[in-house]
Design goal:
The chain is mostly beta strands. It contains no helices and 10 strands.
Amino acid sequence: QSDGLVQRDPADNNVHCKGAFSDTTAVISTSDFNMNHLSLLFKDNENKKQYVMTAQTDQSIKAVDVDASSGSSYPDEAIFAAEYYWSYTIFRNQKYNQKYLGCDGNGNMTLVDMHSLDYPNPQALFILNKVPN
């Protein structure tokens, strides 16, 4: 069953919107750079690796293996500006400035267009929740 959570596929590191609440691969943490800019990270505790959500030139999203000590040296493709629309969070990509993180009709994470923040693309609206440690 899919609850629509963002999830890294360990087989190919593609990012999907097909995760379930019971799945630990659907937990994301953030790496803050300043007030509104952040990177979205997946932690693989079993293999002691960390992956950062990164926009690709074809507008798809991949989870790229990173060294945990890389800190703020993530590329612009992996940095997102958090913006808000009512109770939703919208993530604008730093490199592809007019593109936003979103989910397509097949459950794939991708970059989508946003023509107006007054009437945002529903593919790009996310509800965030803090998971207790």
